[in-house]
Design brief:
Mean pLDDT: 82
Largest sheet: 4 strands, antiparallel
CATH topology of one domain: DUSP-like
Oligomer: single chain
Number of helices: 16
Structural class: alpha+beta
Distance between the termini: 92 Å
Helix content: 40-55%
Length: 417
């Protein structure tokens, strides 16, 4: 190979890509990239084969290096030119595309354009006036650093992006899984074949003959069936056919329906606690408990989703004064039970500078029993409603304010009620 005439060596290089030439010069000691014959051959390929995109690099000028990096840059400018003249379609437009079009990775197109911009920026520094060319001769060291950053070898991120639409069975990834970085795009078939000469990492599937990998489709269906079965079993385990637990799961306002009397029966603008009368008109009491809203939201998400992370025990130690073993009630809860709306209660306490560390929901006695049986709780903070008035089951602390007397979780067993 090293004995070939210069013209024939240039012809051989014109049939190869920059990566092929790199491999040849690496394995053949006589074909050093710094040798005159190799530089002449590279100049021929750069100025003749890619003349449409390298017109600013004339063969008569000596200010640009005859190197493999410049050849690779010319290849990328050629690819950029192809992509700019070709229309790239989204996969949703497949019905209007030619059957000879090719399905490729949209991520690769985006990554490759950025790669092209880096090489283009490098090459355009040689488009200079004579005065600027003289200045450039004094900055060769800086240019060498730029050369080291531009790798000719296959780029790992581009190889990964080019195979985004390829499944583990070396077939087309199902459309349902082509989301995010794995989205599909459609290229003209001729453009695709021209690009893959210089970018072999780009994988594609002809539109007329491609179909989703059936193995992946069946695996996905099996995973979905397993997930649904797991979700169904979890729902049955958590709800257990209980209407109360189902109502708690679906509740959005933070308190049960029977806590307050209907507004039309109360005869007042302010909501009032229900009197809880028995069938014979005699008064009876109803018991309710406070549960952290954040914990209940996590529990609802756990019941409805496929996540494996359970909500854990109910942590509510901030509602107990450990010094006096009494209840510390957030001011907004007291206002809410006194007849104000939840929004009014929260707004009023915030104005007074008593913002709660967390919000609480009110659950019924039966709901609390079911939750405690499954998850336990630090304390059972509840109140009874008798004749339309509420009474805390554990006396409120008159010394400590909310957020002052609460302490870390207790390791001692706590009564459920």
């Amino acid at each position: 190979m090293e004995h070939l005439p210069d013209g024939l060596l240039a012809h051989v290089f014109s049939l190869l890509t920059a990566r092929d030439v790199l491999q040849m010069t690496s394995t053949c000691r006589a074909l050093s990239p710094s040798s005159h014959a190799v530089k002449q051959a590279l100049e021929y390929v750069i100025t003749r084969r890619f003349t449409d995109v390298t017109s600013f690099l004339p063969s008569s000028s000596s200010h640009w290096p005859r190197s493999l990096v410049v050849l690779r840059g010319a290849e990328l400018l050629y690819i950029k030119e192809l992509l700019s003249k070709s229309t790239t379609h989204s996969y949703e437009e497949a019905a209007s595309c030619s059957p000879n079009c090719v399905v490729v990775s949209r991520s690769w197109l985006g990554a490759y354009k950025k790669r092209c911009q880096a090489f283009e920026h490098f090459l355009l520094q040689f488009r200079r006036t004579k005065r600027q060319q003289r200045r450039q001769n004094a900055s060769k060291k800086k240019d060498m650093l730029t050369l080291e950053k531009l790798k000719i070898a296959p780029h790992s991120s581009l190889a990964e992006a080019g195979a985004m639409v390829v499944c583990s069975h070396d077939a087309l990834l199902p459309a349902a899984q082509c989301v995010g970085r794995s989205r599909r795009a459609i290229l003209n078939g001729d453009v695709f074949r021209a690009i893959t000469v210089y970018a072999p990492e780009l994988r594609g599937f002809t539109l007329k003959s491609c179909s989703d990998c059936m193995v992946c489709v069946r695996e996905q269906e099996n995973r979905e069936l397993e997930a649904e079965e797991k979700k169904r079993m979890r729902f049955e385990r958590e709800i257990a056919g209980s209407d109360e637990m189902l109502e708690l799961l679906q509740r959005k306002n933070g308190f049960p329906k029977g806590l307050f009397s209907p507004m039309d029966l109360a005869g007042s603008r302010r909501q009032q606690l229900a009197p809880h009368l028995s069938m014979n008109g005699r008064s009876k009491h109803a018991t309710y408990f406070l549960v952290p809203k954040k914990w209940l939201n996590k529990w609802r998400k756990f019941v409805r989703s496929q996540e494996d992370e359970a909500p854990g025990p109910v942590l509510n130690a901030e509602l107990v004064c450990l010094s006096h073993q009494r209840t510390i009630v957030p001011p907004y809860v007291s206002m809410f039970l006194s007849g104000f709306t939840l929004e009014q209660s929260l707004k009023a306490t915030q104005i007074l500078g008593s913002k709660p560390a967390r919000q609480y929901e009110i659950v019924t006695f039966g709901e609390w029993e079911a939750l405690y049986d499954r998850y336990c709780a630090e304390f059972a903070i509840g109140f009874d409603v008798v004749n339309g008035a509420y009474h805390w089951r554990t006396q409120e602390c008159q010394i400590c304010n909310y957020g002052m007397g609460g302490g870390p979780s207790s390791n001692q067993p706590n009564p459920r009620r």
